[in-house]
Amino acid sequence: MSSYLEIAEMVLAQRRRPMGPHAILREAYLLDLMPSHLHGETQHKTLQARLSEDILRSKERSRFVRTEPGKFFLRSLLSDETIPAEFRKTIKARRRKRELTPNPVLCIAKESLHKLEVQNGQDKWKVLESLRQSGELSYFEFKDRPEGHVPIWCFVMLMREECVLSYRVGKYRSHDDDVTSKRTVGFTSLVTEDQQTLFNHHDLGIIEAGITALALDLDFPMDVDVLDAETSDETSVVEVLTNDEIEAALLVIETGCPSWFEPTTRRLSMNDMKWIPFRVPPNHLDDFDPWTQAVVHRRFACDV
């Protein structure tokens, strides 16, 4: 049994009201319920993931329910009439949809791309905010972006131990013959202006855009909060060149695959899905799409 779930159950039973993961953890520390082996800066993400996973897998047998987005309560207390009725109303997680018209999108001036390479000791999100304030980084209509600006794409890799999930690009995913049937290791998405909210203002919606695209492409069966909890804060920047011209900037993000989830979706846009080792450069790199090749060259700069 998960320690996080046991802690959440004790806190919710004592406080007798729905709570979000931040509040549950705060109360757990006040009640001295947190064991020493549970630590880290993203405990709230882990807790939310564990609760969401338990609700998905156990359904009506789960000890927990959602009462509103991001808030959880105990199923055993839903029939307790001493608790206010508004605390005992439950909801189901809403599935998200990929935007059909991803405009405006986040773009950066080509001459400023080198500034995304954050040096040791720098806060990458403060660097992004500085670029935004200077006008070097902004949202534009995709087709009407200023000359010299390129779109920023999230390139999310789903990792399991030392392997990465790969698949072949189907004909309904790209109209480019150079990409169709090529293997890739990334799930990609433009970053749209409406993906920036009060809750992710610091990263301009970049992380949410990437993991939402991954979740939708794989038909992930629950809120993206679970993947968010498994997503590394580390990012790398990869320039994609065509005829020596920069056509796009990729922000490469790694997300751990939850142990209980096995991607098996077969679609016309994704074929031959399989895990491949990613400790060293993949064999037959020419079999991969240009963006994956660029990411591999950046990751294994000394080996390829």
- Helical content stands at 25-40%
CATH topology grouping of the largest domain: Nucleoside Triphosphate Pyrophosphohydrolase
CATH superfamily caption of the largest domain: Nucleoside Triphosphate Pyrophosphohydrolase
Structural class, from secondary structure content? Answer: alpha+beta
Catalogue the unreliable spans.
172-177
In terms of quaternary structure, the protein is single chain
Reading off the top of the CATH hierarchy, the class of the largest domain is best stated as Alpha Beta
Going by CATH, the architecture of the largest domain would be: Alpha-Beta Complex
Quote the distance from N terminus to C terminus.
44 Å
Kindly list the characteristics that best describe this protein.
304 residues, Nucleoside Triphosphate Pyrophosphohydrolase, single chain, 9-stranded mixed sheet, two-stranded antiparallel sheet, alpha+beta, 25% strand
Outline the structure in words.
Strand 9 and strand 10 (245-256) form a beta hairpin. Strands 3, 4, 5, 6, 7, 8, 9, 10 and 11 form a 9-stranded mixed sheet that branches. A two-stranded antiparallel ribbon has the order 1-2. It is built from 7 helices and 11 strands. The longest helix has 16 residues, at 43-58. Helices cover 25% and strands 25% of the residues. Helix 1 (3-15) crosses helix 2. The N and C termini lie far apart (44 Å). The protein has 2 domains: 3-88; 105-299, Nucleoside Triphosphate Pyrophosphohydrolase. The chain is α+β, with helices and mostly antiparallel strands. The model is unreliable at 172-177 (pLDDT under 50). It has helices at residues 3-15, 21-30, 43-58, 124-134, 206-217, 225-229, 290-299; strands at 64-68, 71-74, 105-109, 137-140, 149-160, 163-169, 183-184, 187-190, 231-242, 245-256, 270-277.
